[in-house]
Design goal:
38% of the residues lie in helices and 17% in strands. The protein contains 9 helices and 12 strands. α1 packs across α2, α2 crosses α4 and α5 packs across α6.
């Protein structure tokens, strides 16, 4: 059954709220406050993953890298989910545009979203889908998921009806009951969208070869309620718990994404995934896919350490680069500039623990 759009509740004048003037707060400036921590969340965050995508216009490819963790409040499996759905990829159709997506969040919601999108695209098999058109289908998919929850949690459970029956009731003059249901729908919509956006988001990372400008690679992402943002001009995007760390790494190495060697682009995205592993909600296994305009997909995986497979050379190369000692010349110049300012102000400073102890032993450092 196709979900119907939300019915707008009839508007009524808002009741006049009585004026309220808060009482003056007591002076607590000198009261000792107890130090407490916030309550432990009753569940783990939903976006336990990292999914990364980058495009190369020169090579005409899209590279995606993700972990494979599937977790809930009880446990986690590091190799359980490839986090990918092919939305429009088969050659047995008239269209040449190709689209796929990755996700962070709840697998069940991802399945619902991807199925809604697939059904919409399958209804027009010969259509050449652009990114802007696909964005609308992503938005419609989120609306369908939200409407289905409202229908199940409000209409079915409280009134034993669905949207079709509610529409029939409204057309027959449902009166106050329709108004009451409309208010309940509005409250449920606000609660559900808040949950999906902030508390337990399921986000999509959509990539493909659309007819925006020929068949150039395209990237966009959606937030937890389907609001889409294009990232084609940016060149890459990462979502999930490790997404921001991964994007920061790619931003610092963005010239490498313009390389004419595919292996260099893949390596930089794997580095970004390794950075994202600093989040405890990102798995250690790596799933890599290279997507070509003609429908070819080249996949490989990197097992979670410890492993003796040859491809682990990528992780070892990354680990050899992190926590490197800074240049001695750079440190000397920093200390030189700090001393110049200290001498100018007449301050007694120390730039290392050794100097600090020497000044303390000489009685030149005040405790």
């Amino acid at each position: 059954m196709t979900p119907r759009p939300l019915l707008r509740p009839r508007l009524h004048p808002s009741p006049v709220r009585p004026s309220f003037r808060p009482s003056r707060l007591p002076d607590r400036r000198f009261q000792k406050l107890s130090v407490t921590t916030g309550p432990r969340p009753d569940r783990l965050p939903g976006s336990m993953t990292v999914c990364i995508a980058a495009k190369s216009d020169g090579l005409g490819v899209i590279v995606t890298v993700s972990d494979m963790m599937l977790a809930d409040d009880v446990g986690a499996m590091d190799v359980a989910d490839i986090k990918t759905a092919e939305l429009l990829w088969s050659d047995s159709r008239g269209s040449r545009s190709r689209w796929f997506c990755l996700y962070s969040g709840k697998p069940a919601i991802f399945d619902d979203l991807s199925n809604h999108i697939k059904e919409a695209l399958a209804a027009a098999p010969d259509r050449e889908w652009s990114s802007s058109e696909l964005m609308r289908e992503v938005e419609n998919a989120y609306d369908a998921v939200i409407n289905r929850r409202i229908e199940r949690e409000v209409l079915a459970q409280q009134y034993r009806m669905d949207f079709d029956q509610l529409a029939a009731l409204e057309s027959s003059g449902g009166g106050d009951l329709v108004d009451q249901i409309g208010l309940k729908i509005g409250e449920a919509h606000g609660r559900i969208t808040t949950e999906m956006l902030y508390q337990d988001p399921t986000e999509l990372l959509v990539c493909g070869f659309g007819f925006d400008e020929g068949l150039r690679p395209q990237i966009f992402s959606s937030d937890g309620i389907g609001r889409c943002t294009p990232y084609t001009s940016f060149g890459f995007r990462a979502i999930g718990a490790g997404g921001r760390a991964a994007e920061a790494w790619l931003l610092a190495n963005q010239e490498s994404l313009k390389s004419e060697r595919l292996s260099e682009i893949v390596y930089r995205l794997c580095e970004a995934k390794f950075v994202g592993e600093n989040s405890p909600f990102v798995g250690k296994a790596v799933w890599v896919r290279v997507w070509f305009e003609d429908g070819t997909i080249l996949p490989f995986s990197i097992s979670a350490p410890p492993s003796d497979e040859p491809i682990q050379v990528m992780r070892r190369a990354w680990q050899s680069r992190i926590d490197q000692q800074p240049s001695a010349d750079a440190l000397a110049q920093i200390e030189r500039y700090l001393r110049i300012y200290a001498d100018f102000t007449g301050s007694q400073i120390y730039l290392s623990r050794k100097e600090r102890e020497e000044l303390r032993a000489a009685g030149k450092l005040r405790d």
